[in-house]
Amino acid sequence: MIKFAPLPFSIGQVYLTSDTHYGHKNICSAVSDWDLPERQRCRNFSSIEEMNQAIVDGINNSVGPGDLLIHCGDWSFGGWENIVGFRKKIQCKNIILLQGNHDHQISQQHVRDGYFREFVQIGFYRVEYIRFVCAHYPMSIWHQSHHDVPLFYGHVHSSFENVGKSLDVGIDNIFHINGAYQPVALAQAYEICMSKPTYLESHHQPHTT
Asked: Which ranges carry the Calcineurin-like phosphoesterase domain (predicted)?
């Protein structure tokens, strides 16, 4: 059985985010080259610099230096300079990054250089009594989903609500929930997931292992 790796943090120290897309012009309404109505779904900032600063401020105003930020992928655009530049602006010392479809220029070298605590495709974690799964993409069935283990994912930018006890933790979806482009606390994300029905369309039932 897959084990949930214990993380040495309290529940109040853990935050989740995804799809920051730091430096991505096409996701910023002022500089996007997408046609309407696609551009109307972009982030409403007057410049890419304003968007980038809002992303940094949203993280730094929520997550402390000794806390843990779990980022479910699509970190930044613009190559090595924005990968490292964005990371250096974040005061949190502990970041786990799940690999997103736009993270092809990020590698284990960034972990060895100290920018990230981990860089993985899927994570199975435990913080105190909370077990959870993190990935970039939503899934209909994941490890221990039939035992109410939640899934935190990104990728969809608030355009799709997954089945079961799962939550899009991307900053666009959290903006719709909390009114700010910032990470969501693990406690709040877990509470939201626990309010949803369990999805059991598989060979598993609640009593199975």
From this structure: 14-156
Residue 75 in domain:
yes
User: If we measure between CA atoms, which residue out of 189, 191, 194 comes closest to residue 62?
Assistant: 189
Q: Look at the pTM and tell me if it is higher than 0.90.
A: yes
What's 33's domain CATH number? Answer: 3.60.21.10
Q: Domain range holding 42?
A: 5-194
- Report how many domains make up the chain: 1
Give the helix ranges, DSSP H, for the chain. Answer: 48-60, 80-89, 108-112, 171-178, 186-194
Q: What is the pLDDT of residues 25-80, one digit of tens each?
A: 999 999 998 887 777 789 999 999 999 999 999 999 999 999 999 999 999 998 88
